[in-house]
Design a protein that fits this description.
It contains ten helices and 13 strands. The protein has helices at 3-20, 26-33, 37-47, 64-68, 88-104, 110-123, 141-153, 246-249, 274-282, 294-314; strands at 24-25, 61-62, 71-72, 74-75, 155-162, 169-182, 185-192, 197-202, 206-215, 235-241, 255-259, 265-271, 288-292. Strands 8-7-6-5-9 form a five-stranded antiparallel sheet, with helices on one face. Strands 11-12-10-13 form a four-stranded antiparallel sheet. The longest helix has 21 residues, at 294-314. The radius of gyration is 25 Å and the shape is globular. The N and C termini lie far apart (60 Å).
Length: 315
Amino acid sequence: MSSSTRQLERMLALVPYLQVNEGVPVAELAQRFGVPQKLIQREIMTLALTGTRPTHGEMIDLDYAGLDEGLAFIRNADFMARPLRLTVLEGASLVAALGVLRQIAKTDQTDTIDQVTAKIHSALSPQHDPSITVHLNTPAEDIRHSVNEAIELGRQLKVRYVSDHSDSESVRIIDPYKVTVERAQVYLSAWCHLAEGQRIFRLDRISEADVLTTPITRDPMEPSPELFDFGEHGFQAILDVDPIARWIVEPCQPERMSESPGGVIRVRVHAMDEQWMVRLIMSGGGAIRVVEPDALAQRLRAAAALALDAYDRTQ
């Protein structure tokens, strides 16, 4: 059982326990649930963010003053026992989320996901079309199975990976941690022994994945790095983008700075490195132009000249 599953079960048990045992000492709770006191205190505080909707009477209320004194009190948790009523939008959102989950879940979990999805479909208002299709760039079935197996068993993976930044292929030994979904892509967080650091891999760029017999040797870093949070190691540029090329930069979630009457937008775009940025701009075919930095514009001109020279030699 994963740590997140254990935590969910523990927090679900905390609610009825605290309703019956008001003012129980946090230390006693930690001992009863077999976890550190700091962990159980964080989970009690998380309960204050739990509910069916962010409105009064639909969220658990926590006595923070009591918690400061080492005692746990919760209020307004009676709604947990009531049947959950979903709006059409909430139901559709759940169906979409389940569609994402199904595409990355283990084989023995898909039946449960399908059953829950069918129940939500049947509960939605009949005048609304319940058909919701979720498309992800999911990896091959054997890759997904190997990744899930390695995470569950705590074993290392040997992967063949194609980099999006340089089109290069490498073989790596990694310690896999977790699979996440962001911007319709599936990612694997892992410790890479080739790079000697924590890395995030796009699963559809893993062409081979073999589960090794060796256990992982690195625990996940805390806190783990966020996707698309490049920090001080990232690269940024300011670009002018014609309307016809907006679709190229929109998946990067650019920071829009201004827009001209002709529809040209000026944006700030973040990336992992300059090479990837050059390829992004060149894919616009002149509809994306560099405002700054100058070094990027010079590198772009050099790359374009090499591409034209290579094209001329093929004629």
